[in-house]
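Quick one: structure for this chain?
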Amino acid sequence: METTKQDSLAIAEKLQQLYFKGLYEGDINLLKELFNPGTLLFGDVNGQPYAKTLEEYLEGVASRVSPKDSGTDFKGIIISIEVINTIAMAKVNVKMYTFNYYDLLTFHRLNNQWVIVNKAFTNVTE
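Got it. Here's what it folds into:
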């Protein structure tokens, strides 16, 4: 069980330092550090289907004005992390611009590093 606690803490740190910070600052290098190159992203934005490769997703992040530069509020919250052996699932809430995203992030420990291998998300109106 100690390994699971350590793994959960390691994933939480990556979410804070790479995922949330990368989204807030629009820093695709931070996001590239966290995402496995073959990651696929699926979801919906305001009811519209969304499906992209990691490369397409990062191009979108790079081309938009970041929440930091736009001066808009940003909040990233870790709701839960569940670790089973070398896989994990993190549920997070990201509020940025006018969006209230819920992300389900699948992690895999590769080369002793936790990386995101899949992202599914939806925008929820409050």
